Amino acid sequence: MVDLFEMRREQDGQRVLTPAHETTEFGELVCSNSLKSESPNTAPWLLKQEMRRLGSPLLALADATAVPAGHALAVDRVEFSRRIAEAIASEPRIRVLREEVTSLDPGEYALTIVATGPLTSDRLSAEIARLTGSEHLAFYDSISPIVEADSIAMDRVYFAARWDKGTADYINCPMTREEYEAFHAALVAAESAEIRDWETTCYFEGCLPIEVLARRGVDTLRFGPMKPVGLRDPRTGKTPWAVVQLRQENLRADSYNLVGFQNHLKFGEQARVLRMIPGLEQARFLRYGQIHRNTYLCSPRLLEECLRLRTRPELLFAGQISGVEGYTESIASGLLAGIYAAAIVQGREPQPVPRVTALGSLAHYITHADAKHFQPANITFDLLPHLDEETRRRVRDKKERHRMVCDQALAALEAWREETKPISVL
Questions:
Q1: CB-based burial of residue 196 (10 Å sphere; 0-12 exposed, 13-18 middle, 19+ buried)?
Q2: pLDDT under 70 in the chain at which residues?
Q3: Using one digit for the tens of pLDDT, what is the confidence trace for 142-164?
């Protein structure tokens, strides 16, 4: 029997939420609806393939609620959340408790998995700090705006996928040099939202607000979220100076999010500046960009490779609090924590997933990185072991090397699964 605690709840006619969430539903995706690339032999694809082979229920639900997103896996947020609730409700061995956890003393539980991302409540943060004997680290993550589909001027935009990879599911808003420079100037001058007392400017480098990027230089956005390369406008046959991409938000295709446009501007300023984007002059915003706190452990100092707290092995940590970054990576770490917990319950010592796999490399990074300079990580090939030197000399093509790394990882995962017989669904 598993008790699943969820602090977001209805209480005395009021909804108890976090600063980032808008609902009390399970699996609410607050930043983006994307679970990254499905292009074969990429690092995000490899991670998802490994999760599928281990029977990840959440990834199966993501596949079932996918919306068109070119070569990426993106989901209908509402349907994804609904399916998760449905699956939990249909499992008699799970009891849902709608209350905030403030103590991690063992009590009646033999094992506890702490997966409190993207936000951890102040009281639980204090409890974890008490147990670990160290301060939490925190970075600040951002939320992208969403617009109504029928408020987009479709005669000013075009559908395309970068380099024509996958289907042309993204709406592309092209900018001339003059339009881009005017937009950049307005963005840099726009007024930021008021800083609350719990906020700092310690942003995660991989998810910087667009106004922070813009202040780094006039062309920074053109080499980041507004990169036009590979997005030729079929109406002109030319590549625009800059492009803003919109990704479908749900199965009904009645809303789109501005890809990579997380920000911390006042709502009125967002409406003014973002309506300078071609095609969004009359945009109606369903959600504005926001900033929120993500809290994580200094896992290299605190966690074993099987995600157990070194000083309290009955506690496992997963999700963003463990030091992974991204929805796919958070689901992956939760899958591993569940597999390791199941082994412990069976009286077996959990065996770490092989280092050469994407799953194993992600867990290895957060538990072996330089603790002094530790930052959360997305899955990349940089985290996986390199091919041996002889193979690298022989195989010069980067794509072929990546294919070999993926083949090696999937073979190692199959061997580990055959040897350990993991239980992935309790």
A1: exposed
A2: 118, 134-141, 195-206, 424-426
A3: 778 999 999 999 999 999 989 88
Question: For residue 220, which of 187, 259, 249 has the smallest C-alpha distance?
Answer: 187
Give the chain's count of helices (H) and strands (E). Answer: 12, 18
pLDDT digit string, tens, across residues 380-423: 998 999 898 899 889 989 899 999 999 999 999 999 999 999 87
For the chain, state the CA radius of gyration.
22
Closest residue by Cα to residue 401 from 381, 415, 380: 381
Measured distance CA(63)–CA(72) in Å, rounded: 11
Distance, CA of 156 to chain centre: 31
Domain 143-293 top-level CATH class: mainly beta
Q: Report how far residue 115's alpha carbon sits from residue 254's, in angstroms, rounded to the nearest whole number.
A: 32
Whether 48 contacts 63, CB under 8 Å: no
Angle at 381 between CA 376 and CA 385, to 5 degrees: 100
pLDDT at 107: 84
| Residue 354 token pair | 């092989």
In this structure, are residues 299 and 366 in contact, taking their beta carbons and an 8 Å threshold?
yes
Which pair of structure tokens corresponds to residue 305?
């490779």
DSSP per-residue string spanning 330-396: HHHHHHHHHHHHHHHHTT-PPPPPPTTSHHHHHHHHHHHS-GGG---B---GGGSPPPPHHHHHH--
CATH dotted code for 30-76+96-136+297-420: 3.50.50.60
Domain 30-76+96-136+297-420 matches domain 143-293 at the CATH topology level = no
SS3 160: strand
Q: Report pTM.
A: 0.78
Cβ atoms of 303 and 317 closer than 8 Å: yes
**Residues 268, 143 contacting (CB under 8 angstroms):** no
Residue 252: per-residue pLDDT: 84
Residues 6+ apart with CB under 8 A from 203: 139, 140, 141, 142, 209, 212
| The pLDDT of residue 197 | 45
Domain residue limits, the chain: 30-76+96-136+297-420, 143-293
**Residue 425 pLDDT:** 47
Q: Which helix (H) or strand (E) holds 145?
A: none
Tell me if 340 sits within 8 A of 304, measured CB to CB: no
